[in-house]
Task: inverse folding
């Protein structure tokens, strides 16, 4: 088979496609997923690493394309994932390291990358119960913060993350990387402030908003009786008044030292582990 035919010829189901050229149209489409526009249009995203891809498939996420580096060829786990991808009607590409670097924008890329369909939870389907904790993020901007929060919410046993207003994309390369796989485990919903406030009334959740002017020490709040939504503010502006007014409590984490505030992801982590303190034990996680 000529190089040209191999790279551009028709794809047959169940057949691995070998690609070495950055000009290959499929590679171009996958590379474009580094841009939000392409992710929005295709409603897909990239997840890097064999473990992540296996976890995602186990959790029922739909894979469109599996890409692996030549060096990973023949590894039993890679073969298994390739077979599962074919079984779901997906595409499998074997690529050069150069192509892998271009897709992941890294010098030392992972051996395996999956293109998955995006998935959002919808607020109207979330009916929180007592003992459940949600994190609502007002206009979160930083991809690293969002990824870290999704990962930490997962680790603390929270039930979901709700993105309010115009936020950074949970499916960007940087955010997905920072979640370390938790993006596949933690439901993420998007909502306007209006819809969020209506939902909260409807389901009877307690909103604990964190605020630098909060009068309540976050350690004195009862997180046990109702489902709790921890509301966190934008990195620059904090929580706007219209949201702060709706909170059941305005909580503050006491600080010492010169820093004006904590990083958003750190503050969220502190709140999550306090709100779920009564539900977490070393025995349960052993
Ligand atoms: N300049 C912003 C302000 O005035 O609110 C700072 C925002 S801070 C970097 C980002 C978010 O982290 C805050 O909106 C709040 O949700 C949370 N946060 C940070 N430090 C906090 C603290 N000491 N107590 C409560 N929340 C805090």
Result:
């Amino acid at each position: 088979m000529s190089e040209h035919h191999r790279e551009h010829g028709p794809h047959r189901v169940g057949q691995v496609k070998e690609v070495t050229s950055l000009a290959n149209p499929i590679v171009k489409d996958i590379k474009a997923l580094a841009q939000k526009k392409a992710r929005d249009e295709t409603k897909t995203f990239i997840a890097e690493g064999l473990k992540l891809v296996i976890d995602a498939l186990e959790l029922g996420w739909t894979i469109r394309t599996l890409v692996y580096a030549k060096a990973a060829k023949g590894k039993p786990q890679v073969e298994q994932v390739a077979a599962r991808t074919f079984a779901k009607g997906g595409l499998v590409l074997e690529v050069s390291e150069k192509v892998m670097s271009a897709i992941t924008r890294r010098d030392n890329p992972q051996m395996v990358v999956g293109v998955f369909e995006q998935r959002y939870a919808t607020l109207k389907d979330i009916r929180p119960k007592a003992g459940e904790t949600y994190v609502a993020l007002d206009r979160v901007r930083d991809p690293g913060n969002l990824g870290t929060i999704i990962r930490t919410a997962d680790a603390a046993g929270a039930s979901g993350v709700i993105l309010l207003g115009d936020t950074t994309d949970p499916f960007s390369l940087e955010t997905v990387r920072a979640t370390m796989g938790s993006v596949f485990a933690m439901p993420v919903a998007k909502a306007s402030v209006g819809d969020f406030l209506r939902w909260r009334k409807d389901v009877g959740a307690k909103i604990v908003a964190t605020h630098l002017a909060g009068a309540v020490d976050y350690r004195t709040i009862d997180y046990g009786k109702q489902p709790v939504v921890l509301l966190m503010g934008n990195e620059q502006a904090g929580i706007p008044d219209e949201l702060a007014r709706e909170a059941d409590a305005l909580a503050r984490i006491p600080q010492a030292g010169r820093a004006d505030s904590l990083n958003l992801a750190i503050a969220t982590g502190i709140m999550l582990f306090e709100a779920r303190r009564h539900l977490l034990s070393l025995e349960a996680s052993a």
User: Anything to note?
Assistant: The first helix runs from residue 3 to 8. Residues 210-212, 214, 232-233, 235, 238-239, 252-253, 255, 261-262, 264, 267 surround S-adenosylmethionine (CB under 6 Å).
